[in-house]
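@channel sequence for tomorrow's demo:
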Amino acid sequence: MPADSETQRHQTDWGNFIALMKYSLAGTIFMLALMAIFLTERTPG
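structure tokens (generated this afternoon):
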């Protein structure tokens, strides 16, 4: 039975890792969008 508990722990860790990557990717895209909005030069006319 130890292999089953070890497999369960690995699956839980993998799910947590995927969730972290999703939030990191969303945060990076959000930050890039803000940079595109606020750091681009706007010239009148």
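heads up for whoever presents: The mean pLDDT is 91.
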